[in-house]
């Protein structure tokens, strides 16, 4: 059940990143969508959505791999000694 929730949490930023790519592509072909008054604004919002969605998914995967020690040595967390 928890894995289904994790998948749903990852799908939302994934869809936002895909919509950001669509906005940038439409700007390159000169298609202005209704909520945006300018093409450059449409591109910037699409770029922001793409970067935000991609960074969320990448951070989630990095956090998961870090917990399982499947990252390079420089990315592993330092274990603190209890005195």
Keyword list:
about 80 residues; mainly alpha; 2 helices
Helix and strand succession?
HH
Whole-number mean pLDDT? 91
Helical content band: 55-70%
For the terminal residues, how far apart are their CA atoms?
39 Å
Q: What's the main sheet like?
A: none
**Helix/strand structural class:** mainly alpha
Radius of gyration: 18 Å
Shape designation: elongated
User: How many runs of DSSP E, i.e. beta strands?
Assistant: 0
Strand content: under 5%
Unreliable parts? none
The tally of helices reads 2
Task: Please tell me about this protein's structure.
The chain is mainly α and 83 residues long. It has two helices and no strands. The chain has helices at 2-28, 39-67. Helix 1 (2-28) packs antiparallel against helix 2.
What topology does this entry show?
Blueprint: H1 2-28, H2 39-67
Helix pairs in contact: 1-2
Tell me briefly what this model is:
The chain has helices at 2-28, 39-67.
């Amino acid at each position: 059940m928890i894995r289904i929730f994790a998948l749903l949490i990852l799908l939302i930023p994934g869809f936002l990143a895909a919509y950001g790519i669509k906005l940038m592509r439409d700007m390159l072909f000169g298609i202005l969508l209704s909520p945006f008054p300018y093409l450059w604004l449409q591109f910037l919002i699409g770029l922001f959505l793409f970067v935000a969605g991609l960074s969320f998914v990448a951070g989630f995967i990095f956090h998961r791999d870090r917990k399982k020690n499947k990252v390079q040595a420089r990315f592993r967390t330092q274990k603190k000694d209890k005195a």
